[in-house]
Amino acid sequence: MSHLDNGFRSLNLKRFPETDDVNPLQAWEAADEYLLQQLDGTEISGPVLILNDAFGALACALAEHAPYSIGDSYLSELATRENLRHNDIEESSVKFLDSTADYPQAPGVVLIKVPKTMALLEQQLRALRKVVTPDTRIIAGAKARDIHTSTLELFEKVLGPTTTTLAWKKARLINCT
């Protein structure tokens, strides 16, 4: 079990499925922290969409905003549900959608954990393009080594102007405007 402090709530998170390792890997990464840091103190209006949240760190932290957790991994959904229960957060506070479902209209914030598969990322960005507004804040995060020129070009091609942040704890963010 690992502890994540952020501007929204203090969480105890675990990976799923659990192992009996003496030193288990943590259930969140620097990109999760960096994404949450960007939203700290921000007024959030409209639906919150979270894409590819591996163990539910983002969904648990933002549960008070009734986020939609969107992904293609059933194990990620199970991990998120387990971490919600473990942190005494109502499971119903997060709505789960698979990556082929229609996304909610006019989201206020979209957080994307950049997947390793470019085809999945492209499909998700094209689905987002149909529902975002000029006021939607779109932030994607990943390990700095996993954000390539081709990743940035795909964001620009599908969603428009894109900027990146400096690396922080070996994580980097992509902002779309």
Automatic annotation (TrEMBL):
One of its GO terms (molecular function) is S-adenosylmethionine-dependent methyltransferase activity. Residues 1-177 form the RlmG N-terminal domain. One of its GO terms (biological process) is methylation. This is 23S rRNA (Guanine(1835)-N(2))-methyltransferase. It holds the Pfam family RLMG_N. Keywords: Methyltransferase, Transferase. The keyword GTP-binding does not apply. The keyword Ion transport does not apply. It comes from Enterobacter hormaechei. It comes from the Bacteria.
